[in-house]
Amino acid sequence: MAKEDYYDVLGVPRGASDDEIKKAYRKLARELHPDVNKEPDAEERFKTINEAYSVLGDPERRAKYDQFGHSAFDNLGQGGFGDFGDFADFGGFGDLFSEIFGGFGGRQAHRPQRGADLRYEMTVEFEEAAFGAEKEISIPRTEICDHCHGNQAEPGTPITTCPECNGSGQVRFVQQTPFGQMASTRTCSRCRGEGKTFSTPCTVCHGAGTQRKMRTINVKIPAGIDDGQSLRLAGRGETGQRGGPPGDLLVLVRVKPHQLFRREGRNVVYELPISFVQASLGDEIQVPTLEGTVNLRIPEGTQSGRMFRLRGKGIQDVRGSGRGDQLVQVKVVTPQKLTAKQKELLRQFAQEGGGDLPEENKGFFERVKDALR
Questions:
Q1: Is beta strand 267-275 parallel, antiparallel or unpaired with respect to 326-333?
Q2: Would you call 207 exposed, middle or buried from its count of C-beta atoms within 10 A (0-12, 13-18, 19+)?
Q3: What's the angle, vertex CA 149, arms to CA 143 and CA 153, rounded to 5?
């Protein structure tokens, strides 16, 4: 299989300047580093961009590559540069790598780290979403151990500097290659990047420095929140490591459907069933709203589907910019069972209006023929 062109690997043209090549490598290295990108092929892609930059980032190697192509570096990536997951010191490559990542894999292992965010899905009633509410939720989260206060060791027992890394949390390796020395830095396996060791772990957290606890948290639901929206509670997530700040709690709100109403933005829609008589003669009807019932005047000759608007009876905008309306949609209900007298009255009504009702004993096809005449 043909080897991919190094310029294509970094996504730069052949005439790119040194700064453009360096900038392209920085961007890709941040995206593809195995400590950040967990995709299965991230490590191989990361090695490939390192291989490309080790050539294009050096003026002499780039000149050879431009003249002879890959044949000028047949051993590149096959042992000539060792493990491209590490960073090399030749040609300024190691300095650039350190500049980009600050020392991935151990150089920052003992520095403060922000805690992870937590997510919680909460279900609220339709009215609670409309007018706001306060809810209590219980969530499990990781907190600093109350017994050892995060020191990991049993209180009163000694904590010493790691003799393997001398407290830095990282161990440096140097290896010789045909292109010179290569150096790599890895997390210290003895102290796991903490820079300290202890002989007696905490009896409560067993040396983890943290505990898993259930916490009750008060959540304020703002008026007007809609289904699928989220609330962010700062500092209510997992505890930070080595003195880092805690993460946040993200609450996803789910709103239960209502038996009478449905929501359209800030408006509330209610379907009002009325009879044929009410639609024809008009009526005054009590209509339910989110705050109780109100009287609605139905004028004579109202058609099914007509919409009436109740101003200010909708839902508050979650940003506080006003309140919506309630839309009342009229649905004229046709009776399914009529007495003989009711049928006769309707026939008389039709005759008075100059219309003829189809005979009940006519079949479907006979009525179609009548319609086509």
A1: parallel
A2: middle
A3: 115
In one letter, which amino acid is 106? G
Beta strands in 243-306 (DSSP E): 249-255, 261-264, 267-275, 283-289, 292-298
Tell me, what amino acid is at 140? P
User: Do 207 and 191 form a contact (C-beta atoms < 8 A)?
Assistant: no
Ranges of residues in the chain with a pLDDT under 70 are 1-2, 34-35, 73-110, 175-182, 353-373
Q: Which residues of 136-175 are buried (b: 16+ CB within 10 A; e: fewer)?
A: eeebebbebbeebebbbbbeeeeeeebebbebbbbbeeee
Q: If you search the block for the tokens 């009229």, which residue do you land on?
A: 330
Residue 132 class from Cβ within 10 Å (0-12 exposed, 13-18 middle, 19+ buried)?
Answer: middle
Q: CB–CB of 219/134 below 8 Å?
A: yes
The per-residue pLDDT for 120 is 94
pLDDT tens per residue, range 161-211 = 988 888 888 888 776 655 556 677 788 888 877 888 888 999 999 888 888
**Residue 88 · residue 54 · CB < 8 Å:** yes
Residue type, 141: R
Give pLDDT, residue 35.
65
Q: Nearest 10 degrees: CA dihedral of 275, 280, 284, 289?
A: 50
Q: Hey, what are 278's tokens?
A: 């009410």
The pLDDT, as a whole number, for residue 367 is 47
Residues facing 284 on adjacent strands? 297
Identity of the residue numbered 54: S
Whether residue 230 contacts residue 154, with contact meaning beta carbons closer than 8 Å, is answered with no
> How far is the CA of 55 from the CAs of 6, 28, 175, 264, in angstroms?
8, 16, 19, 59
pTM of the model: 0.58
Paired tokens of 277:
């008589």
pLDDT digits (tens, 9 = 90+) for 209-260: 888 999 999 999 999 999 999 999 999 999 887 778 899 999 999 999 999 9
Tokens linked to 151 = 């020191």
CA angle 180, 181, 187 (to 5 degrees): 155
Strands 118-124 and 249-255: parallel
3-state secondary structure of 234: coil
Task: Provide the angle, in degrees to the nearest 10, between the axes of the packed helices 42-56 and 18-32.
Answer: 160
